[in-house]
Amino acid sequence: MFPDKNLEQIFEKKLDETIGQHNEHAAKEWLNVQETCDYIGISYKSLQKLIDQGLKGNSIGRSKRFSKTEINHFLKNVQA
Questions:
Q1: How many other CB atoms are found less than 10 A from the CB of residue 68?
Q2: Strand, coil or helix: what is 2?
Q3: Distance between CA atoms of 3 and 55, rounded to whole angstroms?
Q4: CB-count burial class (<10 Å; 0-12, 13-18, 19+) for 36
Q5: C-beta of residue 59 within 8 angstroms of C-beta of residue 29
Q6: Per-residue pLDDT of the chain (80 residues; tens, 9 = 90+)
Q7: d(Cα 55, Cα 37) in Å, to the nearest integer?
Q8: CA angle, 55 as apex, 60 and 28 as ends, to 5°?
Q9: Is the pTM of this model over 0.90?
């Protein structure tokens, strides 16, 4: 597949890292702001609009977290 065996090893390592990160996000219930934007596939500005419409999150100090369960419930009800 790759003419250079070293390049193939680098590609496989990066692929494994990417899959690991995806699985890590899939297993997490509570997401930070950036993870929430990535999970929904929206920008930070759009997330702010959803919060204004009633999406609930929890603040711990200056950190805000969103539950995947709450996100899914909220999006399901908004689309209904």
A1: 16
A2: coil
A3: 50
A4: buried
A5: no
A6: 546 667 667 767 776 676 666 556 567 899 999 999 999 999 999 999 999 999 999 998 889 999 999 999 999 987 65
A7: 13
A8: 60
A9: no
